[in-house]
């Protein structure tokens, strides 16, 4: 079996993206094959494309690398261990695996434990746009930052609230029980968007944050850094209350931990692909988290973070990569996939 896809081999600008055909073996174990109906774009994908197919992984064993970390579609085949989870024809969504071929393709083979049945009231594009962002936010807030039942006095600050991750994190924080959620944004459209997502206060990250928080008369004991970790973790350490917790979804190669030690502040990092990469630590739980998200969606507690929809084809993917490099997306951009998506 094979799959049409859009991929690349060497690194470079968007012109190295091309229509390709990749081999696809039958699923074994917990694997399933999904016929994709929607995919998305992340800024990380533009970074990897610029560096080449081996980027971040050491080496990529196949001729082409196909990206796409979120997906939604229809189960096409199931492996023997996945038969108790899904059957052909099930409509699903998933948060993918950076070490496997992704959802910028006709078919994707993926561990079925990273998959869940999609929210029925949402479009394919709405479902795909939330998958990675919700899983990342859930793992960071609940598993890493250990937030279970916030007190009324607990306050969460999210630095960069208008992106896909920030949009999901604001909503999840609200469902967990935070009554005070401060998000940063700077443009009129991003300020309005973060308010729509549920932020109770919005401050400008182009201006010093601490004076703005002091003006609000609020103390902060949880901070999520979702942009420029090396710049913003020190800022978070300065404004956070002693014994607070900072969560980050980005790498920070240079970090002075002295302020954290003096305040006894926890700093934790979230890498959503780690569970799938290290299965010896236990079964991946992304599928369970997506099922939880689908329940919250059905209850009306989570709204779509989709801001823009495009037809998936080579030209539009190139345009999306150029936008992703600028890292100015509001909410998420998603693509719908059809029979014309892989035509030359």
From TrEMBL:
Protein name: Enoyl reductase (ER) domain-containing protein
GO molecular-function term, one example from the UniProt record: zinc ion binding
Subunit field text: Homotetramer.
Protein's cellular compartments: Cytoplasm
Domain of life of the organism encoding this protein: Eukaryota
GO cellular component terms, semicolon-separated: cytoplasm
Primary location recorded for the protein, binned into one broad class: cytoplasm
